[in-house]
Amino acid sequence: MIRAFDAFSLPVLRWLDPEDAHRLAIQGLRFLPPVKPRPDDPKLAVRAFGLNFPNPIGMAAGFDKSAEVPDALLRLGFGFVEIGSVTPKPQAGNPRPRLFRLERDEAVINRMGFYNKGLESVLGRLKTRRPAGIVAINLGRNKDSTDAVADYVEGVRRAASLASFLVINVSSPNTPGLRGLQRRRDLAGLL
What is the spatial distance between Cα 82 and Cα 68, in angstroms, rounded to a whole number? Predict the structure, then answer.
């Protein structure tokens, strides 16, 4: 499945603005046939955090920010999918352009700024899926929040029952003051 995507879709997507290509990729994944992927070789299985991952390769947060296609990504063969980062309220993120290709490095620079449709929207989508596969939720705080801890507590309280595991994101350089939560005292207080 991935080889077909590389051969046909990637060249077309590279002609587009990176963020438009990302949006088109999400839309395209909605049409991925609901076929079960070939089982992973048992040698790839990983047990961690009380979970059995079919393989160690996951889709990190940032691709499916608002839980639009977690099951399609799992059908592509990922061992897990991480949704988000998700903030309590919807957030527009930084102004465009905010996603940049590094062609030579086969990488991108993401300056989206926790763009997402908010916790209510994400949880609504996740409630309608039949749990199959490991789906994590990456939680962030709103840029204009006056109480970062309250944002994370709300995310944990509301998302815990729908996630295989939760990730607390305190590393975005695009959210003012967020990385201050990495200081030992502040992080200990948050946790």
Answer: 12
Residue type, 135: V
3-state SS, residue 2 = helix
Catalytic (active site) residue 66: no
User: What confidence tens digit (pLDDT) does each residue in 118-171 have?
Assistant: 999 999 999 998 878 999 999 999 999 999 999 999 999 999 999 999 999 988
Cβ–Cβ under 8 Å, residues 187 and 146: no
Say if residues 71 and 104 touch (Cβ distance below 8 Å): no
- The Cα–Cα gap between 181 and 5 comes to 39
Q: What is the SS3 assignment for 168?
A: strand
Question: Exposed, middle or buried, 80 (CB in 10 Å: 0-12/13-18/19+)?
Answer: buried
Tokens in use for 38?
């070939």
The pTM (predicted TM-score) of the whole model is 0.89
| CA gap 191, 186 in Å, rounded | 9
CA 158 to chain CA mean position, Å: 17
